Amino acid sequence: MIKTLFGYTFMQNAFMAAILASIVCGVIGTIITQKRLVSMSGGIAHASFGGIGLGYLLDIEPIIGGLIFSVLASLGISIIKRKTNTYSDTLIGMFWSFGMALGILFISLTPGYPPDMTSYLFGDILTVSSLYIKMMAILSFIIIFFIACIFNYWRAYLFDEEFTKTLGVNTLALEYTLFILISLSIVILTKVVGIILVIALLTIPTAIAKLFTYNLKNMMTLSSIIGAIFSISGLLISYQYNIPSGATIILLSVIGFFLISLIYKKISRNQFKQ
Amino acid sequence: MYDVEIKDLSVYYGSVCALQNIDLKIKSKEFLGIIGPNGGGKSTLLKVLLRLIKPTTGSISIRGSGPIGYVPQFAFFDRSFPINVLDVILMGKLPKKIKWFRRYSAKDINHAEKIMEELGILEFKNRQIKQLSGGQLQKVLIARALITDPKILLLDEPTSSLDSKTKKEIYEMINRLRREKTILIVTHETEDIFPYIDSIAYVNKTLKYYKNDLELSHGIVKKMYGFPNKLITKEEIIHRKLVSYREDRDD
Question: Where are the transmembrane segments (chain A) (predicted)?
Fold first, then answer.
């Protein structure tokens, strides 16, 4: 079965997309969970829907529109929060619904048959094109490059932003860079697992990795590997039973998380007894 | 020669005044305790000193080019963060201008180890911070501030929620640094720091500065109360206000 599977270009692309998405999720997901930016990422993801709608309306690649919207939303949340002292939770909620509403409005204004939006909501890894794989590869490289080459600064910023600031380090530049990287990642992932399921792929592998390591770098690597295992096996299962791939990947990850943390708790309790 | 000079400084958050017309001069090698009620502006003063916020009016000048060595409250940390003791301390070695591909040098690591040894925490070098006690984490944070080689050390509630033995240990540790550094310590535990400090700044929107008079401190007043005279009256007034406030509420 495996051999015939890899004969199809769309299947090769799907596997490549799954692996690239897992690497991005491992790195960015670790940062998001440690900096408590999960709901922020949800907001960015949904705000990008507005851009996707605009892309259809103006007849440009929807993902480009999504990228622009998500970058603007993340920087907007950060700037408005600093200027007005509004709770970022409230702002995130506003951007979240604002983006979705715009998306629906733009799509209804688009002439002709309405495009099938479920592929952006739930993702469709089997329709990922070779061009998109190249785009994903470049974006993943950019993300890993930015994280790796100033890794010590990222760790300091994530652990104790205030102290890092007292050293004179420009933490604002780090924050903006981080938000742009998160936006890039979310857009990459939108095509693979969809807007709604992005958060799961960003948080679940990291949550599992956190059980096994106390090192930030190892956590990123381990999350990537766990993500890859879930996405590839999810892909195979979805192909076998002809069920939606994005949903399968996420369901598998959630079940995996609960099983692994249950087993982990049991083992560590037994160790404690001895 | 003053290390810190604050002139007529005020800080407003919107229309709310946090600090009003504050003047403060801190001598080199002075050991100053900063006290005051919660919400009285202690943390605002601390943030102004660290240049985390800008004063609304007035000026602040700090001698020397390097940053103030900041020791934040250890209780506020996410202990499950994946970082070990050495990496926490090495944070102090990050150059302020972001350098690409910068790794910590062997020299940086040696420096960190030397400080860890002096503070008696070298054995925890590779431990994750979750596996440290409160007192141990506090020492790690002090080490991180010391590795920046600051002229001025600023500690925020360094002993809150520690047991009395660890408290004393931390105070003794800070006290050993006073010959080399100007030390500012924000605290609620006025009684505990009294034997060490040279002066006290009482912050409650305004700032009142008291010298810790040696004669007084070694005299009767200290024996009886553990505070200098003036301070007691201040503290007492607040205490009375608090008590009467509570009584009012009970009614």
Answer: 14-32, 37-57, 63-80, 92-111, 131-154, 166-186, 192-212, 219-239, 245-264
